[in-house]
Specification:
2 helices; alpha+beta; YaeB-like fold; 5-stranded mixed sheet; 5 strands
Amino acid sequence: MDREIVWSRWASDDLVPVAEHISRDSESYAATIVRELVAAARSLRVFAERGRRVPEYDDPAIRELIVRKYRLVYRVHPNRVEVVRIIHGAREMPSSV
């Protein structure tokens, strides 16, 4: 079953500083990372449950994919997947998503 992919405001806002930070060293690498994050999110249309459960949250619907150094955190709904955050792996996860 193909699910709709929806980006939360927070996840969309997370992409900007990721791109800005990386582009200080390489604009092309920043574009590559953003493309990979977007592609990973799109790939969740089918078999969204393949990502691991996020250990910081006690909710089986909240999962993540690791894309290079970033955690693409998403919530699985019956007919859609909501990308909720993009967090650098070295950072603490917010208390709620």
